Amino acid sequence: MKFQKNVVNNWNKKFNNLSQLDQLILRSNLLGSDLKVTNFGGGNTSSKIMMKDPITKKNESILFVKGSGGDLGSIKKDGFASLYLDKFNSLKDIYRGFNFEDEMVGYYPMCTFNNNPRAASIDTPLHAYVPFPEVDHTHPDSIIALATMKNGRDIIKKVYGDSMGWLDWQRPGFDLGLKMESLIHKNKNIIGIVLGHHGLFTWANTSEKCYSNSIKLIKGAQTYLNNTIKKYSFGKPIYKNKSNSDFELKLITTIRGSLSKQNSKILHLDKSDITLEFVNSENLKKVAAIGTSCPDHFLRTKRLPMVLPSLSNLIKNETKIKSVIQNHLDKYKEAYTKYYNRNKSKGSPNLRDPYPVIILIPEYGMMSFAKNKSTARISSEFFCNAMNVMKGAEGISQYTGLTEKEAFRIEYWELEEAKLRRMPAEKELAGKVALITGAAGGIGSATAIKFLSEGCCVILTDIDKKSLKAKHDELSKTFGKDVVHSLLMDVTSESDVKNAVSKSINYFGGIDILVANAGFSSAALFENTTSKLWDKNMDILAKGSFLISREVYQKMIEQNNGGSIIFIASKNSLNASKGASAYSVAKSSLLHLSRSIALEGSAHKIRSNVVNPDAVIQGSKIWQGEWKKQRAASNKISIKNVEDFYKNRSLLKESILPEDIAEGIYFFASSKSKKSTGNIINVDGGNITSFTR
Questions:
Q1: Residues marked as catalytic
Q2: Which fold is adopted by the domain 13-228?
Q3: Quick one: DSSP state of residue 73?
Q4: SS (H, E, C) 516-569
Q5: Cβ within 8 Å of residue 495, ≥6 positions away
Q6: 621 in helix, strand or coil?
Q7: Half-sphere exposure for 17 (CA within 13 Å, toward CB)
Q8: What distance in Å separates the CA atoms of residue 417 and residue 555, rounded to the nearest whole number?
Q9: Is 146 a residue whose pLDDT tops 70?
């Protein structure tokens, strides 16, 4: 069994024609684009570049090094901190020793070149003090696998001979930078250094050579592992993969519901080969209990995952499943709290969320939970890196972790805590998931934009494939691909609805908000209303709203964490219009559907409310068709005067826009209306005939 596919050198000779800084950016992107080389957000690169000082006009050596935060795979110039190298070297003169090294970080901004706002990371000395212009720091699975073996130092010597240096694990910082500098000066033949449990440093005089050294050393570790690793690194498989989608949905909703009691969390589900190999193995519990060993891993994943037992024998016993899951979550919380209390000191930051980030489930895979989708996905990727490391180490020697005390020092490091404090406050809908029907239209689209801007994850559903894709692409570009998911769905099809809800839960973990917005409009005098037209209104507006709300309502009950259902009705639900009997009756049904859900849902903290728009003409797909002509004819006005007619009949003399309706929907979706259910908001500019009574 192979460990991993070898990395490839993707440097092109034409890159050498670029500036030194552009080569640094390109090199960084190449390294960061391969998760086998370094994980998302991990690693850093640097170049020492001669540049003219803007004040003195003298040439100065400037250190460009990946700043705090950001990702190598996508980094641009603004992602690099820039510092006067001479000034940074001068910090050695004021360094007071290992016990005071954290204070040195406060001096880094004083070395800034050209008022660059990008903060220098704690790894900066590890680049500044390497006596070469180009430096790469990566976290390759293969290298860390060697570095976490019980006899890791000996293995490194065996694989690389005298071309690689070794430093035992030490928290990154000023002292480690000085040790690296000393080691390189004493060992002229080495082209890289392995940091125990941490990763790889390489260097050279040019970007091409530096990158080439990184790839060469990583490939050397991969080749050794591929040629040496035993068939079953984690022991023999004792479970088989299961694909019971209904059961899996129950697991997801139950787990997410329990984890989201205090703060809502988003799921990322992983069923990669390495995950299934690990969760189905006989040594799963033993190896998982050692914990992630690379600090860059466990800062994202916590040191230990939560391992559930096989639950397939409990498929028909929902109560028992919930009990087992809750029991494991309670035990994890208790153990994590004890871990904190054992290791905390006087200056330690407060206890963080004590629940797991990573949950491993035999037969089904891995679930990761975080406050947003991107963090959950990245945490999952990090634990995949960690599993690869475990596989490599266990497949040849014995996997080892950091001591509990050292892991705690990293996890609750004041410098890491400072990063958390600098993060912006969470938005109103952070951690929430909303499903919107008719999302490609004006109201649906405006609602999606409002929700996304408030931190929500959004599932767009629509029957119009072309419009849905266009809207998905637009919102993904604006808000990021992680937070937007789209599904083609016909609300009148029960199988479509069930399938869409299932896929939504598999993608985000659950549904907290439903906006039943899918619409259809028709106009005909009562005597001219055909049964076909009547049925179409009832199918889309009444039956469609019933099917999607029933399906989501059932999942909200399983989540056991409340929820908000919002129906988009119409002014016509309260006050019928001439020539629109089918539409008016169908829309009015939503009022009682909402009230019925409010009555029954209150026991589950599920709220149900209605927003009534009127004459949302701009941006509306409905008003782009026959409906506009029909309403113009019904009101005996010119089609070009329709918007003015509706505006002027309102008390406020205002045109109603999709964004206005979105604000009403947002109110019912947010905590601002947490004590409101069974209610109606009219967003119609003030229509006297539709005053609620």
A1: 583
A2: L-fuculose-1-phosphate Aldolase (3.40.225)
A3: T
A4: ECCCCCCCECHHHCCHHHHHHHHHHHHHHHHHHHHHHHHHHHHHCCCEEEEEEC
A5: none
A6: coil
A7: 3
A8: 36
A9: yes
Give the containing element (helix H, strand E) for 342: helix 318-343
Q: What is the pTM of this model?
A: 0.92
Of the chain, the end-to-end C-alpha distance in Å amounts to 72
Strands (E) located in 93-152: 134-138
Q: Which residue has the tokens 């390189």?
A: 184
Report the alpha-carbon distance of residue 520 to residue 688 in Å, rounded.
24
Homologous superfamily, domain 433-619+657-684? NAD(P)-binding Rossmann-like Domain (3.40.50.720)
> Could you tell me the two tokens for 407?
């892991």
8 A C-beta contact, residue 113 and residue 82? yes
Task: Report the candidate in 685, 690, 593 with the shortest Cα–Cα distance to residue 647.
Answer: 685
Spatial strand order of the sheet with 606-613 comes to: 484-488, 457-462, 433-436, 513-516, 563-568, 606-613, 680-683
Please give the structure tokens belonging to residue 443. Answer: 């109201």
112-116, 343-347, 442-446, 521-525: the lowest-pLDDT one:
521-525
3-state secondary structure of 515: strand
Q: Residue with structure tokens 């003030």?
A: 686
Give Cα separations from 561 to 490, 512, 579 (angstroms). Answer: 27, 8, 43
**Which percentage of the chain shows pLDDT scores above 70?**
95
CATH code 3.40.50.720 region(s) in the chain: 433-619+657-684
Count CB-CB contacts under 10 A for residue 208: 18
Beta bridge partners of 195: 167, 199
Q: What is the mean pLDDT of the chain?
A: 92
Residue 341 CA from chain centroid, whole number: 30
Task: Give the chain's count of helices (H) and strands (E).
Answer: 24, 18
CA-CA distance, 141 to 148, in Å (whole number)? 10
Distance CA 290, CA 372 (A): 27
